[in-house]
Give the backbone structure.
Amino acid sequence: MATIDPTAVDQKDRGEVRYAQLHHINFITTRKDEMRDWYRTVFDMDISLDGPFGCWITNDRANHRIALTVLPHVQPDPDWRDHARLHHVAFEYASFDDLMDTYQRLRDLGIVPKACLDHGMTTSLYYTDPDGNYVELQCDNFGDWDQSKAYMRDSLPFAENPIGAFFDPDKMYEAYKNGTPHREILRQIWDSDDFRPAEFPDMGAPEPRPGDPPMPAKY
């Protein structure tokens, strides 16, 4: 039985290079139990193994998708904003409906995003786990990877603003529940300030300093 999803493979001629899919993420953590519970709540992950040195969890047929490793002498980094690091991992939902249903479910549990962006190719909600790692929940705005990939590659608006437009998730969810189509919501995010968040969202970046270039994003 194959363990690789063939629908994700493009038709590029890779010569002797064999295609490999991303399988799992490993976090070294000082909050194993909190991290385990958060990822299980957000993604309904099952435990493959949980022990004193780590926990391995999965939300599909893979043996694990998230590893939480416990090592001696590890300390949280108080200056993480100013350090080079992995910024976020992303999980994609099959539809805008699934993303909005997840937003509502998590909001009712007190789990809310730090920042939300229409990137052009995706609608993205950025959460933080108990260690402060950013976790993006997204859906593809085109519903087709070939189209969203072409948008990134060929779109002049995306080249000029690869960050996107910030939006208030409560306002998006309200519009969604009132029957406004996804594409119309996205149009209004860009063409009006109706979905503008009250405060500039926290994307986990360093504190701005004089002389910094402006972020190419609509706020």
Observations:
- The CA atoms of residues 79 and 175 lie 38 Å apart.
